[in-house]
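Form 7-S
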Amino acid sequence: MDIIANYGTTLVLVAALFGFLMAWGIGANDVANAMGTSVGTKSLTIRQAIIIAMIFEFAGAYLAGGEVTATIRSGIIDSNAFADSPDLLVLGMIASLLAAGAWLILASYFGWPVSTTHSIIGAIVGFAVVSIGPEAVQWNKFGGIVGSWVITPAISGVIAYFMFISVQKLIFNTDDPLNNAKRYVPFYMFLTSLVICLVTIKKGLTHVGLHLTDGEGVMLSVVISIAVAFAGWIYIRGQKYNPQDDSKMHFANVEKVFGILMVITACAMAFAHGSNDVANAIGPLSAVASIVASGGEIASKASIAWWILPLGGIGIVIGLATMGEKVMATVGTGITHLTPSRGFAAQLATAATVVIASGTGLPISTTQTLVGAVMGVGLARGIAALNLGVLRNIVVSWVITLPAGAILAIGIFYVLQACFS
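Output:
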């Protein structure tokens, strides 16, 4: 308690710095893999992807990041265990932010798409074990986390597989693919918008004063999605399509129609991602700010200070702009060859899996969801279409993320204890 009383302001400033670093890592890794399909299909250039992320990730983080956040990320540790020693919780959360942020930046340097959620969970578990003991950790949560390494990619992969098969049957394997694309892509736009609106509304828009019931949320999602589909239908009909392009690349005009859908998907996914995964950076930071402000009292929920959401949003955007290129390349071109129609199937499957997880409480990683979806699209063309070497490296990076976060957090925790004791 003396540490909080003597160094309260310093602790909050250090937590803000490391929270910014964590947000930087989220932008470099998580946002990059979310935008990777759009860049990999050449629907967007890297510069355009960064601009879209700047606008929509920040808007999602600030507008829909939520009014409150759990101070203990995912309930993975028992906050009551720290009731008599809140200073250990503060130092541990600061250590976790630096450890998870450092691991994300290292993974981004090598182009590994890893889970930001699992990075911060591993870090929090590491400091909890060495500060209080194994009893501070709710180990039953780990079954779901390990299971998600298999379940999450499997669900999104299956959805992506059948989504792409539907595209093939309705559009590509027909006598008039271009006209069928014009007919069915607005429907796919409606479906994509509906799923992503449900993701965002499920996470909550209370920060901007919208308190919606489930029924109101569904109705609003349907109305927005109808508007998106109608606007898309008008835009698609107004585009000029050159038959000569199909002689250079088969189905070039059809893929041009899907390219429009990929831009819409990229904007929506960026907003949904900003509203969802910014919590990985601001959750521990909010915990530190709340505990220091209350003089050591630990609450199960904490109101977010006005400056924390913008800090997270800015960090995410800078991370994508400075270090996101390698992870985008891994997801967009490294696993399998993507076209706009295949990228759309992967994006929609990812969003749909997030909706399923939100409704059922399934622990989920957006990274693993997207990688599974890209795999599903590749498998629709046969296993030879997948780069198994890249997939092996990705899976290995998933497995070592939890222990890497824990080991880094333990070392940093001891250093912070020495500095502030």
